[in-house]
Amino acid sequence: MYSDIIDAQIYNRLMGVHAYIPASDGAIAALIRAHCVSVASPRVVEVGCGPGRITGMLARTAPHAQVTGVDYDTRFVAYARKTLHGIEFVQSDVMSFVPEGPVDVVVSQGFHHHVPKAQVVAMLKHIRAWLTPGGIYVLGDEFLAHYGSEAERRMRCVAWYSHIIAHALRKNEPLLAREEAKTLLDDLQIAHKSEEDITLVLTRCEEIDQEWRVGSYTMAQELHAQLDARRERHASGDHTLDLSRGDYKIDHAHFIAEAEEAGFRVASVQTFGPQLLCGSMSVFVLRK
Ligand SMILES: C[S@@+](CC[C@H](N)C(=O)[O-])C[C@H]1O[C@@H](n2cnc3c(N)ncnc32)[C@H](O)[C@@H]1O
Predict the structure, then answer these.
(1) Ligand 1 site, residue 76, Cβ cutoff 6 A
(2) Which of 170, 251, 272, 283 has the fewest Cβ atoms within 10 Å of its own Cβ atom?
(3) Is 71's C-beta closer than 6 angstroms to any atom of ligand 1?
(4) Distance, C-alpha 188 to centroid of its chain
(5) Is the minimum distance from the CB of 110 to ligand 1 under 6 angstroms?
(6) Is the pLDDT at 235 greater than 80, yes or no?
(7) Whose CA is nearest to atom 13 of ligand 1?
(8) DSSP code string of 266-277
């Protein structure tokens, strides 16, 4: 569980200094407000709500809505219940959660890339089945720039995470930079991360963050090759290093294919960040 690595309060603060998360949080809130305004007693479910970082904002955005947050992380849910009153929090795997009645809006932020690829279409179908006929799924997440192969996806990963890490370092947020460096290693499926890997990412991110701006990815490829060659074969014994959160970030095209396979229609997308050359936080609206 994520809370094995990071405390809820620290997590909430770090997300607030991420390069694009606050802007996409705002877009999600605006979409929910616009959708709920014409519904008498809207029901809103946030899946993968974590410690309720945006759940309170969603509830304030649509004060007449009944809001439920769902997450399987025990400590995050306990923190959300303690800090946010008047909102129902359910500790459950989203796949086994069934809401009490039809839902007008499902929301997720930063959740989709944690769902294992083998389960992703089933998860989207499961969520789609909750929605009223006019209901929407507002899905915010980090997306990579377009890629054509797994090798290219990994190179895009290095460019995107380097951009986020370099921004965190410029803002003097070393903890966020370190957590993002670990997440990059998880996304590259480097089973046993080491301090040396993290240092390598932190050292090279700035030059990589300059390079993609001119459409070049040579240094990103170089860093990927260096990390690949260094793969540790043994766990470090430090759970904050060894635990992977199973991040696997994809591009818009792969996501749209998943959503459509699950029966959704993509109604709109807003992007925050350099989507074409590097990546973005994107907010999709999916309709039944
Ligand atoms: C990156 S966090 C995002 C939390 C919150 N939405 C936010 O924006 O800060 C992803 C969350 O999804 C939760 N999660 C991932 N897969 C899940 C699943 N199958 N069922 C329930 N929660 C899940 C994790 O526990 C974690 O809290």
Answers:
(1) yes
(2) 170
(3) yes
(4) 16
(5) yes
(6) no
(7) 48
(8) EEEEEEES-TTT
